[in-house]
Design brief:
This protein is about 45% helix and about 20% strand. It has helices spanning about 10-25, 35-45, 60-70, 85-95, 110-120, and strands at about 5, 25-30, 50, 80, 100-105. Strand 1, helix 1 (about 10-25) and strand 2 form a beta-alpha-beta unit.
Length: about 120
């Protein structure tokens, strides 16, 4: 069973994504800030990370940069999620070459389809 780490300070979004992904057979873990995200990514070695960009205790871009410098975590695919419409934020995020980038509000079917594509799954959304 593939593990997905969901990182979002909005508990409602994290919960909804977790329920959706678990219903498709994924194992999920949730972190609500950058510190928790880094710890979980390094300790749990998920197969993919859904990463909010704007969070307390450091943002998602900082998490991504730290993970890229880590020996084992650098290979974990990242999919960014953000409520920001700032073109600079988008440019910074895309410069980190994520596996996906979604602006909130997003369609969970699109996110699930991208996850399946990245992980090589054939599960139906």
């Amino acid at each position: 069973m593939q593990k997905i780490l969901i990182v979002d300070d909005r508990q409602d979004i994290a919960r909804a994504l977790s329920i959706r992904l678990q219903s498709l057979g994924y194992h999920t873990a949730v972190a609500h800030d950058a510190v928790m995200a880094l710890r979980a990514a390094i300790q749990d070695e998920p197969d993919l990370i859904l990463l909010d960009i704007c969070m307390p205790a450091g943002g998602g871009l900082s998490v991504a940069e730290h993970l890229r410098d880590h020996a084992t975590a650098s290979a974990i695919p990242l999919i960014f999620m953000t409520a920001s419409k700032d073109p600079e934020v988008r440019e910074q995020a895309l410069s980190l070459r994520p596996a996906g980038y979604f602006e909130k509000p997003f369609d969970s079917l699109d996110v699930v389809a991208r996850i399946a594509e990245v992980l090589g799954d054939t599960a139906d959304a």
